[in-house]
Structures are given as C-alpha cells and as structure tokens.
Amino acid sequence: MNNFKYKMIIQWSDEDNCFLVGFPDFSRQRWRTHGDTYEEAVANGTEALEPLIMAYEATGETLPEPSTYKIAV
Questions:
Q1: 25-47 core/surface letters (b: 16 or more CB in 10 A; e: else)
Q2: Residue 57: burial class (beta carbons within 10 Å; 0-12, 13-18, 19+)
Q3: What is the pLDDT of residues 37-70, one digit of tens each?
Q4: Domain that holds residue 25
Q5: What distance in Å separates the CA atoms of residue 22 and residue 57, rounded to the nearest whole number?
Q6: Is residue 67 a part of any domain in this protein?
Q7: Within-domain flag for 5
C-alpha cells in the first residue's frame, strides 16, 4: 500500500488531548484516527490508509486523486 501518495494531516487537539490524523483527499470524514504521541499518530495513520482505500474499492467508488504541493523555485 505504500505506493499511494495521499496527504496525511496530523494536528494536536486540546479537546481530545491527542494528535488527530486525517486524509484531506478523502472527504467523508475530517479525522480518521489518532495517537497519544506524534509517532503513534503517524503509525496509526499509515495503518488506517489501507482499509480506507479498500472501503472505496469495495463499494466501487473511484479513489480520489492525490493532491500535490508544488514548491516555487
């Protein structure tokens, strides 16, 4: 699954007292998983991507195009 190039957003939440993880290219829900540490959030986010993609494929939905960020040189 590492060949998918989707953006993962990790943001601290004072309300939840943890790091929230989201995939902005997938619009269904804002946050997909979380972690008590940044490292745990990265691991959980990486692990959450595969079932998210599988769910799209199981329902016949087209996967979103991965967003890109271009740096001006």
A1: ebeeeeebbbbeeeeebeebbee
A2: exposed
A3: 999 999 999 999 999 999 999 999 999 999 887 7
A4: 11-58
A5: 19
A6: no
A7: no
Cβ proximity of 13 and 19 under 8 Å: yes
Asked if the model's pLDDT at residue 1 lies above 80, the reply is: no
Please count the structural domains in the chain: 1
Q: What is the spatial distance between Cα 60 and Cα 19, in angstroms, rounded to a whole number?
A: 31
2 band by pLDDT with thresholds 50, 70 and 90: low
| 4 domain residue, yes or no | no
In a domain, 73, yes or no: no
Locus of tokens 């902005």: 24
Is residue 3 very low, low, confident or very high in pLDDT (cuts 50, 70, 90)? low
pLDDT digits (tens, 9 = 90+) for 6-32: 999 999 999 999 999 999 999 877 899
